[in-house]
Specification:
single chain, 487 residues, alpha+beta, three-stranded antiparallel beta sheet, binds adenosine-5'-diphosphate
Length: 487
């Protein structure tokens, strides 16, 4: 077979190609057969018997038909090629019969079968008619005979049988070819689909590979950025610790001397500070205190960042702590019309905490409540959750917190809208430190607030277990910076 078309849809072309191949084989066989017969005829002629008319001319006609078939096949005219082949043979055989070799009529059944294989049934029937006509009438022309003899009838009978067989076989062959072509078409479709999906898989593999490479690049960059950020954080921590320490010494001198000048005239030979200076000196003292608080906060945070904040964890009795805090809070409220309330049960379990730091957290919340409340009340409350934790809260009837600020106010140096207002300004560090301290003590902090109605800050501390040796007073070293990640 020369070539099989790769187009799945062109079944007709494919079938035609198969038949063209077959015809190509046939014409060659016939051509060389005819030449061989002519050759033998020539030899016989040389030996004296004159068969030349009955063999050479038919062989020549058959060869002409074969050559025409070849040309037509070369120019892709398949049907014409078959007819050229068949006509060549019929002409050759017809001439042979005309020359008196009636036996050649017995090749017609073969011709009919060949046509049956190469062309549709219509063509087979047409060939049958022509072959029968040649077999019956050509002998009459030559011999002027008028009757049909038994030989002719037998030949016609064979031709009829050949035509019947050809029609039957070619029908079956067509069926088989159709089935084969259909299977071939399906196979091609599946193959094409497989090819497409393979290409798709390859494309997505390439895409994935590119993405993986990109991800790797990004990961590397992230790793570098993380390392840089860590270095910067350490550097910042170190810088803040050094700066705070260096600032505190002169600041303590400023606060100390301004306080002495204001309150202890005996240190200056009982000469009172003139009134003109007193106001400004008061400003220096208050600003100094504020600055010291700020520096202390920064120092605390940098220690937490560096994992170097030591807590004195012990069993803490809350009642005494609350009393002390409320006494201090009275000073924070000043002359504002604010009532300080308390909502704590008479019996509360002891907690597991650093008392100074716990006091710092509550005072920080009370001081914020006092700062952001103009009138109403501030309540300090506590309850035993019964789950190994005590919840403590500070509620105020102040200005409240904007919903969009709630997520940020526990971050360092972050203030809400309220915190940026004149007269309420702060550093944005109090809540951040409180959160870190509570985390180190095993608790957590959160807030509920309604703008214009007030806020409640809650936090938890673990209940002390009397059996636990940790509750005995001892420093708890915070060395693992992983503990310090933000909520
Ligand atoms: P600041 O020094 O600004 O008070 P904090 O960390 O203590 O820093 O508080 C952060 C912000 O949270 C404040 O600026 C304020 O906007 C808000 N805030 C804290 N407590 C209250 C409160 N009781 N009422 C209203 N807003 C509050």
């Amino acid at each position: 077979m020369t070539a099989v078309t790769t187009e799945p849809t062109s079944q007709l072309n494919f079938a035609q190609e198969v038949r063209s191949d077959r015809l190509a084989g046939l014409w060659k066989l016939t051509f060389f057969g005819a030449i061989g017969i002519a050759w033998i005829a020539l030899l016989v002629t040389v030996t004296g018997r004159s068969w030349i008319g009955a063999t050479i001319t038919p062989a020549a006609l058959v060869c002409i038909g074969c050559i025409a078939t070849r040309q037509l096949l070369a120019s892709n005219r398949y049907e014409a090629a078959v007819w050229a082949y068949v006509i060549g043979i019929m002409a050759g055989m017809g001439y042979g019969i005309y020359a008196g070799q009636f036996l050649l009529a017995f090749t017609f059944p073969l011709v009919i079968i060949m046509v049956g294989l190469l062309l549709p049934v219509r063509a087979t029937m047409l060939t049958l008619v022509v072959c029968v006509a040649i077999s019956l009438f050509v002998p009459m022309i030559n011999q002027a005979a008028t009757t049909i003899n038994g030989q002719q009838l037998f030949a016609v009978l064979l031709m009829g049988i050949a035509a019947g067989l050809a029609a039957q076989t070619s029908g079956e062959l067509y069926g088989i070819a159709e089935w084969a072509l259909e299977s071939y078409r399906k196979e091609r479709t599946v193959k094409n689909q497989l090819f497409d999906s393979q290409q798709e898989v390859e494309r997505s593999y390439m895409r994935q590979k590119a993405l993986a490479e990109q991800l790797q690049e990004t990961n590397k960059e992230l790793e570098l950025a993380r390392a840089a950020a860590l270095e910067a954080k350490n550097f910042r921590g170190q810088f803040l610790a050094n700066m705070s320490h260096e600032l505190r010494t002169p600041l303590n001198a400023i606060i100390g001397f301004s306080e002495t000048m204001l309150n202890f005239p005996m240190m200056y030979e009982n000469i009172d500070l003139p009134n003109a200076y007193r106001n400004d000196m008061g400003q220096i003292y208050n600003s100094g205190k504020h600055l010291l608080q700020l520096i202390n906060d920064i120092l605390d945070l940098s220690k937490v960042d560096a994992g170097k904040l030591d807590l004195e964890i012990e069993e803490v009795e809350l009642e005494g702590l609350f009393k002390g805090v409320l006494a201090t809070a009275a000073g924070l409220v000043g002359d504002k019309p604010i009532k300080l309330k308390r909502q704590t049960p008479s019996v509360l379990p002891h907690v597991h905490a650093d008392p100074l730091r716990l006091r710092q957290v509550i005072l920080n919340l009370m001081s914020n409540a006092a700062k952001f409340t103009d009138s109403g009340s501030i309540t300090l409350g506590a309850r035993d959750e019964g789950t190994g934790e005590v919840t403590i809260w500070v509620t105020d009837t102040g200005i409240g917190i904007q919903p969009q600020d709630i997520d940020h106010i526990f971050d360092e140096f972050r203030q809400g809208q309220s915190g940026r207002k004149k007269g309420r300004a702060g550093s944005g560090l109090g809540l951040a430190i409180s959160r870190q301290l509570l985390r180190l003590m095993g608790g957590q902090i959160w807030v509920e607030s309604k703008l214009g109605h007030g806020s409640t800050f809650y936090f938890t501390v673990p209940v002390a277990d009397p059996e636990d040796p940790m509750t005995e007073s001892q420093p708890s070293q915070v060395a693992n910076p992983a503990q310090l990640s933000r909520v």
